Amino acid sequence: MNIEKIIRDKRGTIVDVRTPSEFMSGGVAGSINIPLQEIPQRLNEFKNLNTPIILCCASGGRSSVATQMLNQNGIKCVNGGSWLDVNYFQSQTV
Question: Which CATH number goes with the domain that contains 62?
Fold first, then answer.
């Protein structure tokens, strides 16, 4: 899946998997924060989000782990990497 195209077409949901304090210091406009460690308990929330879900974090490591977890649970998602990259793509659609 092409992240840039998903964002440009205004499809899916952007989920930031950083900690709440990291998210509060800056994030992608319109994204939601579900920290990586909370994903197992919040799987039902993911099932109700518009897909594909674009996952992001500080560098792409945590979002990679989150992508694997969600894919194993049948949730359509893609690793967007750093929130700064996802934010750049998002800013190009405004």
Answer: 3.40.250.10
